[in-house]
Design brief:
This protein is α+β, with helices and mostly antiparallel strands. It has 7 helices and 18 strands. It is 20% helix and 37% strand. The chain has a 6-stranded antiparallel beta sheet with strand order 7-6-17-14-9-10, with no helix packed on it.
Length: 286
């Protein structure tokens, strides 16, 4: 891909980025010296004391650089859902950084490679959930990592029904359940015992949280079919990416499906996803 493809660069960020004014000033100077259009999302613009770009402009950027932890990138993906841009996460906060995988210290070197066409773009699937109440859709949620069904306040086992379109899967007697994407397979689902999927796969992981029976195990399901859950107990909430909650009522039906829009993430050429897993998860090797 030619350098001219990356002409407009948007800088976005999450919370807890105070004290980074000098760092962002250097990034802006680096980009403008290379004749790039720089668009500042309001969080970064506030740090630099300048006027932010409109969200509609940022949605059309060639790439959005998201600074912070993984939560910052999850929020940015929801905010700019449906845009034509690519995303890249720069880890200014957090520890693991599966999504914000790039170091701030090496960012200018990485960008210089991108500007010379040394990059690839991968696509990641997202989940959508529609909550239906009395046959009417009352809420729609989107998630890059996972959707979680769990109790709002109490800590007790609950019954959760799941089906794949019209085919019943099971009723889980558990603390809750996670429906994760391949990208989210290294997040909450992993900590609950779910498998790791290659992010290029089109599949979902249904992981019960602390099930009562040892025979209950996570399931890998096709992403092209709808996954349904009928709510039979009170005080449940549906959470998207650990950031958005929606309270549920008895009788609600949740319909999960693969989103039509896919997240596009920019990477250096010849990036090895499994090398990242080995490093992040401390897999030992002989």
């Amino acid at each position: 891909m030619a350098e001219k493809i990356l002409n407009s660069i948007a800088l976005a960020g999450g919370r807890r980025l105070t004290g980074r004014k000098n760092y962002f000033s250097k990034i802006v100077k680096f980009l403008r010296a290379r004749k790039k259009e720089v668009l500042l999302e309001k969080t970064v613009a506030k740090i630099l004391g300048t006027k932010p770009a409109r969200d509609s402009e940022i949605r059309k950027a060639d790439v959005i650089l998201v600074f912070g932890g993984d939560g910052a990138l999850l929020g940015a993906v929801r905010k700019f859902f449906g845009s034509t841009t690519c995303f890249a996460g720069i880890r200014l906060n957090g520890t693991l950084g599966f999504l914000t995988e790039y170091s701030p210290a090496n960012l200018t070197k990485l960008l210089a490679e991108f500007f010379h066409g040394k990059f690839e773009v991968s696509e990641r699937m997202l989940l959508e959930a529609e909550v239906r109440r009395g046959g009417t859709a009352v809420k729609a949620l989107r998630a890059l990592n996972e959707m979680v069904l769990q109790q709002k306040n109490l800590a007790e086992l609950i019954d959760l029904d799941f089906s794949l379109d019209s085919k019943k899967i099971a009723t889980f007697h558990a603390d809750g359940a996670i429906l994760a994407t391949p990208t989210g397979s290294t997040a909450y689902s992993l900590s609950a015992g779910g498998p790791i999927l290659d992010p290029s796969l089109q599949a979902c992981i249904l992981t019960p949280i602390n099930p009562h029976l040892l025979a209950v195990r996570p399931l890998v399901l096709p992403a092209d079919e709808k996954i349904r859950s009928k709510i039979r107990v009170k005080n449940l909430v549906l959470t998207a990416d650990g950031q958005i909650n929606f309270p549920l009522k008895i009788g609600d039906e949740i319909v999960f499906r693969k989103a039509e829009w896919k997240l596009r993430i920019i990477h250096p050429k010849n990036r090895n996803h499994f090398e990242i897993l080995r490093r992040k998860l401390n897999w030992s090797e002989r």
